[in-house]
Design brief:
The complex is a heterodimer of chains A (116) and B (183).
Chain A (H helix, E strand, L loop, with lengths): L4 H14 L3 H10 L1 H19 L9 H8 L1 H17 L1 H24 L5
Chain B lengths: L2 H6 L3 H23 L2 H18 L9 H23 L6 H7 L11 H16 L2 H12 L4 H8 L3 H19 L9
Helix pairs in contact in B: 2-3, 2-4, 3-4, 7-9, 8-9
The chains are: A mainly alpha (116), B mainly alpha (183).
Chain lengths: 116, 183
């Protein structure tokens, strides 16, 4: 059954690249000048869209240098992280001593009789 | 030794070369999805951070730029999603910047072709977000429907519909007189 222009134009956006509905659409387009024009517009549009990959916007000045800096920045973070990991026991002991000190101080303060 | 292999080995000079060769494309991709220069710069930064961390796992079975585009589009889309959740305002600054792309002299094409890229950027800018992301990823950067569905967290059918409707809307905007008599 011959497709109508309405149904062909519904399919054209997919047909133009992925070939959806190939045979029946191709048959209709070969006989219909209007749909052929429509198809050529889609082909033109897709051609231009794919050429846009090469067209680039102006990059903010600071961005480029901060991208360059990524390996050394991550390297510094990694150094700090491995230092903390390697000395985890010492840091945890220090934190425990501080916490115990704070608790002791709070207890001492709460037991101290109020002066008149 | 290839540039990517040198980067994998921790060569910072090679990394600079790689960034120099790709950062304009990656930033523009993020800008096309996010339409805000600050968000695009942030997404570009995050994308390269991810890329540097994941470089050791890059096996070279895809082109490096294709792989980088996937990382960048994924990052930009995640950012776009969280930005939408925060319901912040839509900035027009990115549209202006994209509108200037051709005038910036980044393309080697003729003056006529430059104008066309500008027209397309403007048309893309007014396309609803969900159509724009799908069309940009499919038709500008060549991602498959499956990849687009994965990145946008939608079904493949929905991704296909978005690309389809986006193309149709763009065509109607750019070729307004292309409706004729129907058989």
């Amino acid at each position: 059954m011959e497709m109508t222009c309405v149904s062909v134009r519904e399919i054209l956006p997919a047909y133009v690249r992925d070939g959806d509905g190939s045979l029946s659409v191709r048959r209709h387009v070969s006989r219909c000048a209007e749909c052929r024009t429509d198809l050529s517009h889609y082909e033109d549009l897709l051609g231009k869209l794919s050429s846009m990959e090469a067209a680039t916007a102006e990059v903010p000045f600071a961005l480029r240098s901060s991208l360059f800096d990524i390996p050394s920045r991550l390297g510094r973070i990694e150094t700090v992280r491995s230092h903390v990991t390697d000395n985890r026991r010492a840091y945890l002991s220090g934190a425990a001593v501080l916490a115990a000190g704070a608790v002791g101080a709070a207890l001492w303060k709460s037991r101290k009789p109020a002066t008149a | 030794m290839e540039l990517v292999d040198r980067c994998k080995a921790g060569d910072e000079a090679a990394w600079k070369e790689l960034v120099e060769a790709t950062h304009r494309e990656v930033y523009t991709l993020c800008l096309r999805i996010l339409r805000d220069p600050d968000d695009a710069a942030e997404a570009t930064q995050d994308a390269y951070l991810k890329a540097w961390r994941a470089l050791k796992g890059f096996r070279g079975d895809a082109m490096f730029t294709t792989w980088l585009y996937r990382v960048a589009s994924n990052t930009a889309i995640s950012k776009h999603r969280s930005r939408k959740r925060r319901r912040t305002h839509e900035s027009g600054a990115g549209d202006e910047l994209l509108g200037q792309i051709a005038a910036g002299g980044s393309t080697e094409s003729s003056a006529g072709a430059r104008l066309e890229v500008q027209d397309l950027e403007r048309a893309l800018a007014v396309l609803p977000d969900h159509y724009r992301s799908a069309v940009v990823l499919r038709d500008v950067y060549g991602l498959s429907i499956e990849e687009i569905a994965g990145q946008l967290k939608i079904s493949q059918t929905a991704a296909k519909v978005r690309v389809h409707r986006g193309r149709k809307k763009l065509k109607d905007m750019l070729y307004p007189a292309s409706t004729g008599e129907e058989v």
